[in-house]
Amino acid sequence: MDYQTPWNTPDTTAYLCEKLDDIDWGNEKPEDDPDAVPAEGWILEEFHRIREHLGLGDFEFQMLHDPDHLNGFVEGHVWSMGETPSRIMLKTSPNADRAEIAATLIHEFAHIYACGHDIAFINKVVDLAEAMYGAEFFEEARRSSGKGYQTVDLWIAVGIRAKFNSLSRIPRLKPLGEGKLARIVSRIQKMQRLAYSQPGTSEAIQAVGLANTMLAVYDLAGYQVTMPDARIHSQMADIWVKVKRAREYWRYLAASACANLCGCFPLYVKSEGVLHLFGRYGDLITAKYLIETSIANLERQAKAYTSALNGGKALPRGVRLKERNGFLDTAARALVERVDAERKAAQKEASEGAHLSLASKASALVVDDWANAQEYARQEHWRRGDRWRVGSARTTRYSEAGYSAGKNLGLRRGVEGHEQRQLTSE
Q1: CA torsion, points 368, 246, 302, 400, in degrees to nearest 10?
Q2: pLDDT tens profile 141-170
């Protein structure tokens, strides 16, 4: 068997996702949901407010709506002769909030004075945003001007969102620590899936707004450009992940914990040193990255631990291997324990029917994903006349340092800051 070849790959032409219920995409806000899709009246007022600030005469403003575009971004286009515009077109989407709409208006008005997306255009975008909403909200946009217009556009929306929501602390750029990228990307994708399941509602708009803010805060604008279509992202698929060194059982434990954390169902072939993962395509890609970085992280910690023993002096090979294996075995088991506790907590919270924050709902989705992935794996094995069995337990040497390493491995930290505290998971 070629373990590099999946049984099923995502179909990029015929989407196999669940269809969303038909929704009446009205232009006005529902009376019982004042924070839902921004009304045409508000968009038109914002258009005229910017136009009058620039001293431009009246010209055509066209609004379109794309019910299939659910990532919260807004498209626009401007027609002009020199600095005399004749028309601006705006194509909104169900999950776009007022900040994304206003940011797109700023972008299109700036095109009247600067063609292309060079530094002159970027500076015009930031200048106009500062003039309309306040310079204090766009310090990161100004600092990011050298990173390209897509990054600046994200920060413009973040600044306007902070203005509209009267945030006391404006989001700032944050560095991504080791092993944190996969968790942040996964969190962004979970927020998007929440929004895709109930487009046009205030909760969906808030979730997408938080996801797009995270793209800016963690400098992931480039990832957004290459992110798979959400419908492809949700398809069930499978991949094989090489774990190396088939006899080192801790690798399977750590890899399985990472897979479970991402909502994937793992099976392993111990004689081949590979793990077979089942789940949503996007979750599989995240799990693969998290497995690779987590195993490498644990190996580095084990090396540092054994090097520090005996006052830094070299240990006999047998003693060193014994200490290393005890450290890694215990760390992997602690990681499994940690992930299991998190999944059980999410299941309990969901079953009690309590009000869930966006972060709690995302965690509950992971639990559901894992159950769906397990059933998918079972069906695929049955279809091929195959089966799996549960492995036997193994005795390992306990290591206090290893247990601490597994419990504190940097899988996720959430988004820090007062305005997004509901996303913090640890």
Answers
A1: 60
A2: 999 988 888 889 999 999 999 999 888 788
Residue 74's CB is within 10 A of a number of other CB atoms, namely 23
Query: What one-character-per-residue DSSP string does 116-149 give?
Result: TTSHHHHHHHHHHHHHHH-GGG-HHHHHTGGG-H
Residues 334 and 301 sit within 8 Å (Cβ to Cβ): no
Q: State the Cα–Cα distance between residues 355 and 372, nearest whole angstrom.
A: 24
Half-sphere exposure at residue 189, Cβ-oriented, CA atoms within 13 angstroms:
28
Query: What ranges do the domains of the chain cover?
Result: 29-234, 236-423
Gyration radius of the chain over CA positions: 25
In this structure, are residues 410 and 179 in contact, taking their beta carbons and an 8 Å threshold?
A: yes
- pTM for the complete prediction? 0.51
pLDDT in tens, 207-232: 888 888 888 888 876 554 334 455 55
- Percentage, residues of the chain above pLDDT 70: 72
Contact 252, 271 (CB under 8 A): no
Q: Which token pair is 344?
A: 């059980």
What pairing do the DSSP bridges indicate for beta strands 84-92 and 60-65?
Answer: parallel
Kindly write down the DSSP assignment for every residue of 279-338, as one continuous string.
EEHHHHHHHHHHHHHHHHHHHHHHHHHHHHGGGGPPPPHHHHHHHHHHHHHHHHHHHHHH
Is residue 80 within a helix (H) or strand (E), and if so which, with residue range?
strand 75-81
Distances from the Cα of 383 to the Cαs of 17, 239, 374, 386, in angstroms? 21, 17, 14, 8
d(CA 62, CA 60): 6
Q: Which residues contact 418 (CB under 8 A, 6 or more apart)?
A: 167, 168, 169
Query: What is d(CA 181, CA 50) in angstroms, rounded to the nearest whole number?
Result: 37
The amino acid that residue 309 corresponds to is: L
Q: Which residues of 233-254 are buried (b: 16+ CB within 10 A; e: fewer)?
A: bbbbbbbbbbbeeeebbbbbbb
**Contact (CB, 8 A) for 199 and 155:** no
Q: What are the structure tokens assigned to 210, written together?
A: 């938080």
Does residue 417 contact residue 171 with C-beta atoms inside 8 Å?
yes
